[in-house]
């Protein structure tokens, strides 16, 4: 657990009010049959955080501790989860003052305008120890950022500890696993350097001795089995780390130490990308057989918090990771000048405009600038007729993901 003491924060309040849930949706309530204690008043802004003193984040499988300074008072904390997360929030006996009476309220997720709204997702008065509050087994179908509010009507001067636990091992956001954690990567580098020095082998030869199952376990323990400060991705457990992040770490160092091209892990196409590809494919096949296409999406192994892998390395890895591109019958592609994303979009404007529009939302973070490598080949297929092949490697360097689009235009 982490203990976080914060300065005094005062907030005046109205009497108890409660915002009803959305139509067809009831807030989940704790075990107590007593009336909920001091919900924060609904602000005119429509953003419940404006009726609270906001104190920052509480981590998954972690806790924060502070104290009330006035009566009544509403102190709030945000937390992030993946879609389908099942969580427990509790004002714990450990770390809370004797005789404290609290209320607990959950709102969100936060929308694109930064508002948590006023709809209660869960609430409780006395389901915890004594008069403390607990919401147990809350399933959050939508991923994103939520707000937990702890209130009191009589607790001025008393401290409390709010703990957030993940119950189903599916709370950490998927993006946390797309890159190797920097501290985990540092362990691999230190180990590799030690083996090189002790045994006189190359870094590539030393790598297997630093990336086996025991190394994975030790790396997880070093970041996650802590009294405080565990990484957010730890919430999903060791099996998730071993199967999702550890291979990313190994693949990055496979290329880093010169053992071969960067291995890219294929990702399933999202439903949005499948739909946009199908729309373009229909255009290609309408009337004459104008074109054909293939689309892949892949994760790019990298280390969080470090400069992104170069487009050259990503393109090399893409051609080494997709069998269709290196099969014996595949064309011999020539790399042309790199494109801006606007230039790439113009190339797809006639047959696949929806795909070009959808890729940043499907693979990017909304603000990063994609990089595009362009490969070309033309193949005679009949007297006076050729097939014109372009392979576009579209790389999102912050999100560590890439799309590979193979577009073939037929000369009729």
Write up this protein.
This protein is an alpha+beta fold. The protein has 3 domains: 48-166, Jelly Rolls; 174-257, no CATH class; 265-411, 3-Layer(aba) Sandwich (Protein Transport Mog1p, Chain A), CATH 3.40.1000. It contains 9 helices and 16 strands. Strand 14 and strand 15 (385-396) form a beta hairpin. The protein is flat, with a radius of gyration of 27 Å. It starts with 27 loop residues before the first strand and ends with a strand.
Output the keywords.
Jelly Rolls; 16 strands; 6-stranded mixed β-sheet; Protein Transport Mog1p, Chain A; 9 helices
Brief rundown of the structure:
This protein has 412 residues and is α+β, with helices and mostly antiparallel strands. It has helices at 182-199, 203-206, 213-224, 238-256, 271-285, 311-321, 323-326, 341-347, 353-363, and strands at residues 28-29, 53-57, 62-67, 73-81, 85-91, 103-107, 120-124, 134-140, 144-152, 159-166, 265-267, 291-299, 334-335, 371-382, 385-396, 401-410.
* Largest β sheet strand count, sense and barrel closure: 6 strands, mixed
CATH architecture of the largest domain: 3-Layer(aba) Sandwich
Q: Rg to the nearest angstrom?
A: 27 Å
Average pLDDT over all residues = 90
N- and C-termini, Cα separation: 68 Å
Under CATH, the topology of the largest domain can be stated as Protein Transport Mog1p, Chain A
What is the number of helices?
A: 9
Strand content: 25-35%
Number of strands: 16
**Domain tally:** 3
Helix content, binned percent: 10-25%
| Alpha-beta classification | alpha+beta
Q: Just give the CATH class of the largest domain.
A: Alpha Beta
Principal-axis shape: flat
Strands ordered across the widest β-sheet = 1-7-6-9-4-2
Low-confidence stretches: 1-26, 28-35
The arrangement of helices and strands along the chain is EEEEEEEEEEHHHHEHEHHEHHEEE
């Amino acid at each position: 657990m982490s203990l976080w003491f914060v300065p005094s924060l005062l907030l005046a309040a109205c009497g108890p009010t409660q915002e009803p849930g959305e139509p067809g949706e009831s807030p989940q309530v704790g075990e107590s049959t007593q009336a909920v204690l001091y919900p924060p008043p609904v602000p005119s802004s429509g953003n419940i955080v404006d009726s609270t003193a906001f104190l920052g984040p509480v981590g998954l499988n972690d806790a924060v501790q502070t104290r009330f300074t006035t009566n009544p008072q509403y102190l709030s904390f945000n937390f992030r989860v993946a879609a389908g997360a099942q969580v427990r929030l509790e004002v714990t006996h450990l770390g809370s003052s004797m005789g404290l009476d609290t209320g607990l309220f959950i709102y969100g997720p936060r929308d694109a305008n930064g508002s948590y709204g006023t709809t209660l997702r869960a609430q409780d008065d006395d389901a915890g120890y004594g008069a403390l509050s607990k919401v147990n087994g809350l399933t959050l179908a939508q991923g994103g950022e939520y707000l937990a509010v702890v209130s009191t009507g009589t607790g001025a001067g008393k401290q409390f500890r709010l703990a957030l636990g993940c119950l189903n091992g599916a709370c950490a956001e998927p993006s946390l696993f797309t890159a190797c954690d920097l501290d985990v990567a540092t362990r691999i580098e230190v180990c590799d350097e030690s083996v090189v020095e002790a045994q006189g082998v190359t870094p590539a030869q030393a790598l297997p001795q630093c990336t086996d199952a025991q190394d994975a376990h030790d790396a997880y323990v070093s970041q996650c089995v802590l009294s405080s400060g565990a990484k957010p991705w730890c919430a999903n457990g060791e099996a998730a780390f071993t199967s999702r992040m550890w291979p990313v770490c190994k693949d990055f160092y496979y290329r880093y130490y010169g053992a071969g091209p960067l291995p890219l892990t294929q990702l399933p196409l999202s439903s949005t990308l499948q739909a946009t590809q199908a729309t373009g494919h229909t255009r290609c096949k309408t009337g004459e057989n104008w074109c054909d296409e293939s689309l892949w999406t892949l994760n790019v192994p990298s280390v969080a918090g470090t400069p992104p892998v170069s487009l050259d390395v990503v393109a090399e890895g893409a051609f080494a990771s997709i069998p269709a591109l290196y099969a014996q019958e595949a064309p011999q592609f020539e790399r042309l000048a790199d494109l801006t994303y606007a230039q790439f979009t113009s190339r797809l404007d006639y047959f696949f405009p929806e795909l070009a529009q959808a890729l940043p939302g499907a693979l990017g973070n909304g603000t990063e600038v994609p990089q595009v490598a362009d490969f070309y080949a033309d193949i005679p297929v009949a007297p006076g007729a050729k097939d014109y092949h372009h392979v576009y490697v579209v790389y999102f360097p912050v999100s560590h993901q890439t799309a590979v689009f193979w577009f073939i235009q037929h000369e009729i």
